[in-house]
Design a protein that fits this description.
The chain is mainly alpha-helical. Helix content is 85%, strand content 0%. The radius of gyration is 30 Å and the shape is extended.
C-alpha cells in the first residue's frame, strides 16, 4: 500500500476533523450527554488524581528527609510507604481538628443568629425611622424582613425531607442508591490516589517512554517541559496559598481575641480560607464575617473591618510575597483577568485553579516571544525605541496631487 505524502496526510486530517465536527454539532445533545456520563464515570479517578497531587506535596518532603538517613538507598519502598502514611495521618488530623472546631462554632452562630435576628430587624427599623431621608424606606424594610421566620424555614425543610407518603419508598431507594454510589466513589478515589502515590516513579517513567515513542524527540521534550512546569507551578501555588491561609487565620484570631470580638475561631477560619480565592475571596469572606459580628455588635464589626483590612494588606504585600517569591510570576492584571474568567466559566473551582493555569500559559508564551525576537535579532533596546516612537498626521508622507486626481 502506497504511503500518502505530507500534503495528502494534512488534507486527510482536515477532512476527518471536519466530518467529526459536523456530526458533533449535529448530534450536540447526544454528544453532551455522553460526555456528561463519561465525566460521572471518571469523576472518582479525576478527584483521586487531584487528591494524590495534594498529598504528594508533604509526601515528597518526608521522602527527601528520610532519604538523607538512608544513605545506601536500600529502603526506598519503605520510605515511600512511611511518607505516604505520615502524610495521610497529618491530613486526617488537620481535617478532624477543623471539623471539631467548626461544627460547634457553626451551631453556636446559627443559634445566636436565630435568637438575635428579630431584635436586629427592630433596631434597624428604629434607626431608619429616626432620619427623614431613610424614613420612607423603614416600612418597606420591615415588611420585607419581618416575614422571615426561622421556624417556617425549619418546618419547610422538614416537609421537603419527608415528602409525600407515596414517595417515601422512592426517596428511600434513591437515598440508598446515592449513598452506595457515594461510598464506592470515595473508596475508588482513595485507592486510586494511593496507587498513584506509591507508583508515581513507575508511572512517570512509563508515560515518558510512551511519549517519546509516539512523537518526535523535540516535541516530546517540549511536552515534557510543559508538564514539569505545570506540576511545579501548581505545587508551589498550593503550598504558598495554604501557608498564607494559616498565617492569615492566626493573625485574624489573635486580633479578634484581643478585641473580644465574638466567634473568633470560626470567623478567623472563614477569613483565612476565603484567601484561597485571590481578589474576590477576601472581600466575600470579610463581608460575610462582618454580617455575623454586626448582628451582635455593630461597633465591634467596624473594629473587625479596620483590623482585617490592615492584616490583609500586610498579608498580600509582605507575608505572601515572602512565601511565594517568584513561584507564580504573573502580573496583577492577569491575576484579576484569570480569576474573573475562571470564576465565570467554572465557578469557585475555576477561581482556584485559574491562576496557576494562566501562569503556565503566560510563562510559555513569554518564552516563545523571547525566542522569536532573538531569531529576528531584535533586542530590548530596539523594542524600547519602537515603543517610544510617536507618529503624528503631519509625519505621514502623502501625495496630495494623487488624491486630488482621484
Amino acid at each position: 500500500m502506497r504511503k500518502l505524502d505530507e500534503k495528502s496526510q494534512n488534507l486527510l486530517k482536515v477532512v476527518v476533523l471536519g466530518i467529526l465536527l459536523y456530526f458533533g454539532f449535529y448530534y450536540i445533545e447526544s454528544v453532551s450527554k455522553a460526555f456528561s456520563n463519561l465525566f460521572l464515570v471518571l469523576q472518582p479517578f479525576i478527584i483521586g488524581g487531584a487528591l494524590a497531587f495534594v498529598i504528594s506535596i508533604p509526601m515528597n518532603f518526608f521522602e527527601r528527609q528520610f532519604s538523607k538517613l538512608d544513605k545506601n538507598g536500600k529502603h526506598k519502598k519503605l520510605i515511600s510507604v512511611m511518607s505516604l502514611l505520615i502524610s495521610w495521618i497529618l491530613v486526617f488530623l488537620a481535617f478532624t481538628i477543623l471539623i471539631t472546631i467548626l461544627v460547634p462554632s457553626i451551631g453556636k452562630v446559627i443559634n445566636t443568629f436565630i435568637i438575635k435576628w428579630p431584635e436586629f430587624v427592630k433596631d434597624i427599623y428604629k434607626m431608619l425611622q429616626k432620619y427623614p431621608i431613610t424614613e420612607p424606606y423603614a416600612d418597606k424594610f420591615m415588611d420585607s424582613l419581618s416575614g422571615i421566620s426561622w421556624n417556617n424555614i425549619k418546618n419547610a425543610s422538614l416537609e421537603f425531607l419527608k415528602g409525600r407518603e407515596s414517595d417515601v419508598f422512592t426517596k428511600a431507594t434513591d437515598l440508598v442508591s446515592s449513598v452506595s454510589s457515594g461510598v464506592i466513589g470515595v473508596f475508588t478515589m482513595f485507592v486510586f490516589s494511593i496507587f498513584i502515590l506509591l507508583s508515581k516513579k513507575m508511572l512517570k517513567i512509563n508515560s515518558t517512554r510512551i511519549l517519546y515513542a509516539i512523537t518526535t524527540e523535540d516535541r516530546a521534550d517540549y511536552i515534557n517541559k510543559v508538564f514539569s512546569l505545570s506540576y511545579n507551578t501548581f505545587k508551589d501555588y498550593i503550598f504558598s496559598r495554604l501557608i498564607s491561609v494559616v498565617c492569615l487565620s492566626v493573625l485574624t484570631f489573635i486580633g479578634m481575641f484581643v478585641m473580644r470580638i465574638p466567634n473568633a475561631i470560626m470567623i478567623s477560619l472563614i477569613v483565612g480560607f476565603s484567601d484561597l480565592i485571590p481578589i474576590f475571596g477576601p472581600i466575600m469572606g470579610t463581608a460575610f464575617s462582618m454580617i455575623l459580628i454586626f448582628i451582635e455588635s455593630p461597633v465591634k464589626a467596624l473594629f473587625f473591618l479596620a483590623y482585617t483590612l490592615i492584616v490583609q494588606q500586610i498579608q498580600e504585600n509582605a507575608i505572601y510575597p515572602a512565601i511565594a517569591g517568584d513561584a507564580i510570576g504573573l502580573p496583577a492584571v492577569w491575576v484579576m483577568a484569570s480569576v474573573t474568567i475562571g470564576g465565570a466559566l467554572f465557578g469557585v473551582w475555576g477561581m482556584l485553579i485559574s491562576i496557576p493555569v494562566v501562569s503556565v500559559i503566560y510563562t510559555l508564551s513569554h518564552e516563545k516571544v523571547h525566542k522569536t525576537l532573538v531569531e529576528k535579532n531584535i533586542d530590548e533596546d530596539k523594542i524600547i525605541a519602537k515603543t517610544n516612537k510617536t507618529y503624528k498626521i503631519e509625519d505621514i508622507e502623502t501625495n496630495d496631487e494623487t488624491y486630488e486626481k482621484q
